[in-house]
Model the fold of this input.
Amino acid sequence: MAHLIKKTRKRWFSGLMFVGLLCLSVITVSQARAASIEPFVGSYHGTTIEHAENELQARDLDVVIKETERGFIVDWSTVIHKPDGREKTVSLDVEFYATERADIYGSAMRSGLFGKRIPNDPLKGEPFFWARIVDKTLTIHALYINDEGGYEMQVYKRTLDDDGNLDLIFRRFRDGEQIRDVTGKLTRQPDRY
Done:
């Protein structure tokens, strides 16, 4: 009789463990889905102000966010107005894809050996990007490793306001020290694509 009770307890405990692990895996899979890019999709235009060395410099900014099958693409262009009247234009587009980690997107910047889109390699001097969405904020991180082995991190925080426009905070860090701080407002534009 004691042997039968032990066997029943063992089966009951095994069944309970199976149900527990099943519940845990369902929770993990549901948490692994990244937050939706849908509220951010659109075209934006605005002006930013750079706070550097006690002087303010304006920048014109255009951002287009498009949803894809795997995630989304962020295409941004910045026109920097130099104090001497010159202008410098910087443009970049990055494809992001959902990962197994909740709210985190990986980047695919170039084609690999077999044509599959893959991330850049920061050890080759290429920027490595990833993104995350938390509540109404889309944050994009860019990591650069310089020739001396130090690093530079750029952080773009784009937060949706109640009108569907974006508040931008851009910060640049070199070896952990903040070296640039830019803020701005981008207004949602009529669809261009």
